[in-house]
Amino acid sequence: MHLLIAETEHARYAELLRQAAPELELHGSDDPAELAHWAGSCPVWLGEPDRLAEVLRLGHKPQWLQSTWAGITPLLAADLPQDYRLTRAVGIFGQVMAEYVLGHLLAHERQLFARAVAQTEQRWDNRLPHSLSGRRALIVGTGEIGLSVAQFLAPFGLELTGVASQARSLAPFAEVVGLADLPRVAAEADYLINLLPDTPGTRDIYDAALFAQLKPSALFINAGRGVAVVDAALVNALELGQLAGAVIDVCRQEPLPTGHPFWSAPRLLLTGHSSAPTQPRLMAQLFLDNLARYRSGTELQGLVNFARGY
After folding, report:
1. 2 is catalytic
2. Alpha helices in the chain (DSSP H)
């Protein structure tokens, strides 16, 4: 079987896959022209959605495409085909995303950035920090990644609430409410953590009305998708002191253009879409597990419903 690998780290993927599945004929590159050259002879594609969207636009199409990202937005464009099997990366981002969230919660409570500034000013800062225990964390998006984050945070004694498409019971959340209840539960949160995918129903939900509901001491973290946030509303809320700070990993336009208000907004930290990088070793194993399913005709992990967008 011929496999197309469209990845910046295509050589690393080839090394991992060659060890485990030497029968595969591997064709890897990060160059669209080279990928297009091989695409017609490869029934299975593995790689980054933005690179593979370019190959699809050139008239090629796989039988099965395994994304190396959890998000597959570039492949959902209206001008691209949808009559093939598409799987997104699942089961490999929970730990690293949880580490990202925990790191920023601790930095916020320990006031690490303020203390760094105080040191550069040679100013003694002896304000006492707060513990995570007893804080209320609202995780918006309780799928595989959101659940992993909640399980990771639970031992620290946080009160965990979730937001999903519909209310449900799901440990370790004390409560999971529907998206319509987001304003109500956001008003009670010390940490508002967005992990939602990009769907028509999750765009622009963090608007001026929602930010006005938050505690002035609340921290907002967006590690889901940039289109969920109304940029101007967030900047205005920070300027008005409607929340204590924001950690923004994902933006509507990436890289963030020069002059965008996020660069200079008060108490806003940009982390450059680095919250949950794909680890080739884990991704290769997921692909091999799905390859076995593909060959046996069983259901693939992370199979995308094009109508839903995930």
Report:
1. no
2. 10-20, 32-39, 49-57, 94-109, 112-120, 144-153, 182-186, 208-211, 231-240, 280-296
pLDDT tens across 185-236, in order? 999 999 999 999 988 889 999 999 999 999 999 999 999 999 999 999 999 9
User: In the annotation, is 60 catalytic?
Assistant: no
0.85 cut: is pTM over it? yes
How is the chain split into domains, by residue range? 2-92+278-296, 94-270
Q: Is the pLDDT of residue 248 over 90?
A: yes
Same-fold call for 2-92+278-296 versus 94-270: yes
Which of the residues 10, 51, 135, 225 is marked catalytic? 225
- Fold (CATH) for 94-270: Rossmann fold (3.40.50)
Please pick, among 136, 273, 281, 308, the residue that the annotation labels catalytic. 273
CATH topology for 2-92+278-296? Rossmann fold (3.40.50)
